[in-house]
Amino acid sequence: MEKNKPYSILICEDDLNLRNLLSLKLKNEGYEILSAAEGSAGLEMALEKKPDLILLDLLMPGMKGDAVLAALRNDPWGKTAKVIILTNVSNDDKMMKEIGANNPVFYLVKSDNSLKELIDKIKETFQEE
Fold it and tell me: Residue 17 sits in a domain of what CATH number?
């Protein structure tokens, strides 16, 4: 990736307030932001725009986040797309196994992580390149 071009992040989150907060904070950090309020729109945008990172909520209207992640992993580009799961689902063992099989970079529970911790994980993800 060109160093003078900002990293792009797709925020797939149905909560408008959280989506706007994340967008504002990440723009202020220098990232280019794309956003989607539901799963199928997020999947379509991801495959079209190919962002450098996807922040993906699991519980969204329509197509759920786990289905979005599985569909991404079936796409040639999506197989290696970087995804951070950002959700409030923390104790669904079946879902955790399915998500884990699709290799997210991180799995963060919203209520357990601050905005600063999320930003740190995003920076860590890009430092691994």
Answer: 3.40.50.2300
